[in-house]
């Protein structure tokens, strides 16, 4: 559905606008050519973090701190965001955003490639994992997310439509293949209950329910 600008403005009025720290974080991200999620994706992240207020969250890809501020805005007031960023310049911008918003004490910012950092995080210690880094690595991030999440926790992945390339059989660049693999794995995993929403460039949300995985295994008759 194409939303004309007047309706878009009305919808944004429903969810509320950006705070000054959010506006500043987005402006700095744009100036540094760092992709930031659209406003409607940010407000959706805030909603997801508050559905059953997250106590611990992992963000893979800090960027300029914009999405992290939205996640913290919805989470429990005592929640901690562990955010992983491979680029030192991006991490510094994100830290500035957290400081301006007064949430530095609620952020654990780790510098390094995600696949080197994720194995160091504790099992079953988080309520939400947000994937927003290298799309080609999304399937690997998913494997870690299943380990990190408490039962009932959420996996949220950004850019899953990839400007429509995921639906184009001729598109076979690493990012597209990674996104397709992520979607296929979540669809076929009995412990993950997911949906894709056409917000921004596509948001996938999946709830982790390992009990349903056990039920599926139990339903297989013994040989």
Keywords:
disordered C terminus, globular, seven-stranded mixed sheet, alpha/beta, 223 residues, 9 helices, single chain, 44% helix
Provide an overview of this structure:
Helix 2 packs antiparallel against helix 5 (88-101) and helix 3 (39-51) runs parallel beside helix 4 (66-74). The chain is built from nine helices and seven strands; from the N terminus they run αααβαβαβαβαβαββα. The radius of gyration is 17 Å and the shape is globular. A hairpin with a 5-residue loop joins strand 6 (192-197) and strand 7 (203-208). It has helices at residues 5-15, 20-31, 39-51, 66-74, 88-101, 114-117, 138-148, 174-188, 210-218; strands at residues 56-60, 80-85, 107-111, 126-131, 149-158, 192-197, 203-208. Strands 3-2-1-4-5-7-6 form a seven-stranded mixed beta sheet, with helices on both faces. It is an alpha/beta fold.
SS strand fraction: 15-25%
Can you tell me the overall shape? globular
Radius of gyration (Å):
17 Å
Q: Quick one: how many beta strands?
A: 7
The neighbouring-strand order within the major sheet is: 3-2-1-4-5-7-6
**Terminal-residue CA separation:** 49 Å
Query: Mind describing the biggest β-sheet?
Result: 7 strands, mixed
Structural class by secondary-structure content = alpha/beta
Return the string of H and E elements: HHHEHEHEHEHEHEEH
Q: What oligomeric arrangement do these chains adopt?
A: single chain
Helix-residue proportion: 40-55%
Q: Low-confidence segments, ≥5 residues, pLDDT <50?
A: 218-223
